[in-house]
Write a structure and sequence with these properties.
There is one protein chain. This protein is an alpha+beta fold. It folds into two domains: 3-250, no CATH class; 264-369, no CATH class. The protein is 16% helix and 22% strand. The protein is built from eight helices and 16 strands. The chain has helices at residues 3-10, 16-19, 193-199, 216-219, 232-238, 264-276, 334-339, 358-369, and strands spanning 43-46, 49-52, 57-59, 71-77, 84-85, 99-107, 114-116, 129-130, 134-145, 148-156, 163-165, 170-178, 183-190, 222-225, 228-231, 242-243. Strand 12 (170-178) and strand 13 form a beta hairpin. Helix 6 (264-276) packs across helix 8. The radius of gyration is 20 Å and the shape is globular. The protein starts with a helix and ends in a 10-residue tail after the last helix.
Length: 379
């Protein structure tokens, strides 16, 4: 199934705020961390359905983060009467009291076998996620409190009735059946609260936690709501929930990495942005690498693009290769070597996956192989 069809299906959830049980209101806890996810009111298991809280807004990204092929349901909630502020290069500046929740799950067949695919068509009913056709794994909550954002991981129980706070994270054996009939077995790792903070702190100096996905370049896309199609940023503007932007056309927009009609470079850079850019930016945890992968619309100096750039440190992370990116030769590029690895001392990203994203790896490899030039004179 193509991505745009997935998004059409996802959009069926978007009117839930108007149809939700009015008692399922969102509670933005400013103090204390509730043990049960349902206490937040963001999502709640009711019988065979995972329903959304009142006045929540589902959203999607042009290119999503890879998390072991898990499907994701993203929703946000902004306090009544409040607005997010537009920031071009970072996530929207959500007001204190805002809550963001992302639920990770896998589709399953009638026998309970978990499936690895891109087909969202069986995930939803008219009221929410269909628990007969999916297995919930975890829900990550970001809440904006007076002292900043707090990240909290919740793990779903076996009967899918509740998710419980596990600040220490967790590990769950996953057995997937791929579309070609082969099996894939791995341990799905749920990050602990500190690891959540590690990725959600794009500035390594301040270490302040903030959202990653809901940045203008990721949100700037059309979403199919129950009342029609609308750009996500334009919808926030129209509903009076976004200040500082008059029209989505003025905002940057990343490419959909699966859209083969888009330029290969834009697709690859969009993929690297969402998967790597939170660390690989001028202020991030990987700033010392001087290899920046965020903001595809921004033109960094040649020395920061990774092309014919030697690594800042030798070791197993290089695979014996000399440059981050070798034009025309993905196999000799450190970037590809690390993306293709599951070795904790080599793999990139370091967190968030136990498997290799073969499709993403191919995309980045194709992009590098299509580059002109070489690194013959770069030693």
């Amino acid at each position: 199934m193509s991505c745009w069809k997935q998004w059409l299906i996802l959009g069926a959830l978007s009117g839930l705020s108007a149809c939700s049980n009015p008692t399922q209101t969102v509670t933005p806890f400013m103090d204390g961390n509730p043990q049960n996810l349902s206490d937040w009111g963001m999502v709640m298991a009711k019988g065979d359905t995972l329903s959304l809280g009142q006045d929540t807004m589902p959203y999607d990204l042009n290119t999503p983060l890879f998390t072991d092929a898990a499907h994701k349901l993203r929703i946000l909630w902004i306090p009544p009467g409040k607005k997010a502020k537009y920031r071009e290069e970072r996530a929207l500046d959500f007001p204190v009291g805002s809550v963001i929740a992302k639920t990770f799950y896998y589709p399953k067949d009638s026998t309970g076998t978990l499936l690895r695919n891109d087909d969202y068509s069986h995930d939803f009913t008219g009221a929410g996620l269909n628990l007969n056709t999916v297995r919930l794994v975890e829900t990550r909550v970001l809440v904006h409190r007076k002292k900043g954002w707090v990240a909290l991981p919740y793990i779903w129980n076996a009967d899918q009735s509740e998710a419980v706070l596990e600040r220490t994270g967790g590990a769950i054996p996953i057995h997937l059946q791929k579309e070609d009939g082969t099996e894939q077995n791995f341990t799905y790792v749920i990050p602990n609260a500190n690891q959540c903070a590690g990725c959600h702190a794009p500035n390594a100096t301040t270490r302040a936690i903030e959202p990653i996905g809901p940045a203008p370049r990721h949100l700037n896309k059309v979403y199919t709501y129950q009342d029609g199609k609308e750009n996500q940023l334009d919808r926030l503007i129209r509903l009076g929930r976004l200040d500082g932007l008059a029209d989505a056309k003025a905002a940057p927009r990343n490419a959909n990495w699966r859209d083969e009609s888009a330029p290969l470079e834009k697709r690859a850079r969009g993929y690297l942005d969402i998967n790597c850019g939170h660390c690989h930016n001028p202020h991030g945890a990987a700033d010392t690498s001087a290899f920046y992968l965020d903001r595809p619309e921004h033109e960094y100096p040649a020395g920061n693009t990774g092309i014919c750039k030697p690594p800042v440190a030798a070791g197993q992370g290089t695979g014996g290769h000399s440059f981050d990116i070798v034009p025309g030769d993905a196999e000799k590029s450190i970037l590809v070597y690390r993306m293709a690895s599951n070795n904790p001392g080599v793999m990139m990203p370091e967190l968030g996956r136990s498997t290799v994203d073969e499709d993403g790896l191919k995309l980045v490899s194709d992009w590098i192989n299509a580059m002109d030039g070489d690194c013959v004179n770069a030693q």
